[in-house]
Specification:
By secondary structure, this protein is an alpha/beta fold. It has helices at residues 7-18, 48-55, 72-90, 121-134, 156-166, 186-198, 216-227, 239-245, 250-253, 255-258, 271-277, 284-291, and strands spanning 2-3, 23-27, 38-42, 60-63, 93-99, 140-145, 147-149, 171-173, 181-185, 206-208, 212-214, 234-236.
Length: 292
């Protein structure tokens, strides 16, 4: 069973179904891919009793779901508690999609065994989801992804750079354009979720989705070259810009907690994922061709 219906959930369902697995996808809208082995169900994952009934008989429960970005501190505990209760009631294995906020600021390549030292509200919310699951006695693992890119991705790059580059327009981004940053492809993240769910060594610890590390300007440049678009024009959104934008949309106020220190690369170590789970990063150009 997969809770969520975004790009990662969809790709995970497709991988499982293509391998002959029966998949039940749960989301508020009942969305998901068209496939004879994928059953799509409209349900609220915070309705614990119904979620438990839907999870009965499932070997593994995957969750890629998250509440609206600016409500994480209030709503993530409710969602995660419902999911964890359903897992404990049914005995299903539990594979969670997480991110890197829980680590807090780190000045070196991030490994999955680093402490979850975040002090901000979104980072602590993410850290608590894992800490509570790991301490629950459930058979659980978490795959932590960096900023997404790829077909169907919902991220800073996809929302604020990708379309602008393809249309030859100016792009403003809330990160330094020329500082290296690790990106996780949607397809690689889905493959890691599936691999973790099938590998007994995966449980009881966290893993990093494979990443490719390059600056946002370089990533935008590769996209433009492959698409035959003009050379990208990028500039950094300042904290003042985001403060002004936040007057009309709370989404923008949330960036202040997770901005990278000026001049510091944001690099992820996914070597354990390659070595043990057998999942490597797809070449950047292949991911971008799929976007185009």
């Amino acid at each position: 069973m997969i809770v969520g219906r975004g790009a990662t959930a969809t790709r995970t369902a497709q991988h499982l179904a293509d391998d002959g697995e029966r998949v039940r996808m749960i989301s508020r809208t009942g969305g998901g891919p068209e496939h004879p082995l994928v059953e799509r169900v409209a349900a609220d994952a915070t309705d614990t009793d119904r979620l438990t009934r839907l999870a009965e008989g499932a070997d593994t429960l995957f969750t890629t779901a998250a509440p609206p970005y600016h409500t994480w501190p209030e709503q993530f505990p409710v969602l995660s508690a419902s999911l964890l209760t359903a897992v404990k009631r049914t005995g299903a294995s539990y594979v969670m999609l997480g991110n890197l906020y829980g680590y807090g600021p780190v000045d070196q390549p991030i490994r999955p065994d680093f402490p979850l030292a975040a002090t901000g509200p979104k980072g602590r919310a993410r850290a608590r989801v894992w800490e509570e699951a790991a301490a629950s006695g459930a058979k659980v693992t978490e795959v932590r992804a960096s900023q997404f890119y790829g077909a169907g991705a919902f991220s800073v790059f996809s929302l604020m750079v990708q379309r602008q580059v393809l249309e030859g327009r100016f792009a403003l981004v809330p990160q330094e354009p020329d500082v290296p940053h690790s990106y996780s492809a949607i397809g690689d993240t889905a493959r890691t979720l599936v691999a973790a769910g099938r590998n007994e060594q995966a449980y009881g610890r966290a893993w990093h989705a494979p990443t490719s590390t390059l600056s946002v300007r370089d990533l935008a440049g590769r996209l433009a070259e492959l698409a035959g678009a003009p050379e990208p024009r990028l500039e950094e959104l300042t904290e003042r810009d985001m403060t002004l934008l936040a007057l009309n949309d709370p989404f923008w106020a949330e960036f202040h907690e997770v901005l990278i220190k000026p001049g510091h690369p944001f690099v992820v170590d996914h070597s354990a994922t390659e070595k043990i789970l057998g999942v490597s990063a797809t070449p950047v150009d292949d991911v971008l061709r799929e976007v185009i």
